[in-house]
Amino acid sequence: MSANKPKSVKITVIGNNSGKHEVINKFISPKAPLKQDLEPDIDEKYTTSLHFKGKDYELEILDTSEEETDQNLMDMWIYFGEGFILIFDINNKETFEEAKKKR
Q1: pTM for the full predicted model
Q2: 15-20 average pLDDT score
Q3: E strands within the chain?
Q4: How many CB atoms lie under 10 A from the CB of residue 37?
């Protein structure tokens, strides 16, 4: 492996009705206007590069669908990920309770 090759990291983002899609889009494109889109009906993968503490990383981010109640899908997403982000809407206690259950 080349010393200059970025380390690949797979991140799974989970959270129902939480605005996770917007958070991911803002992370990937910080200067893009914030969109108030609906969460995706299917899983979406994004890739972006990140330079952190002198090292380069290639992030593969899985934006999970709204089918998070399906245990088979949840198991697949957990298998996919090396890191996990649980997102909830600070103005919606239900999304916080859901995030606690998933954790």
Answers
A1: 0.72
A2: 76
A3: 7-14, 44-52, 55-63, 83-86
A4: 10
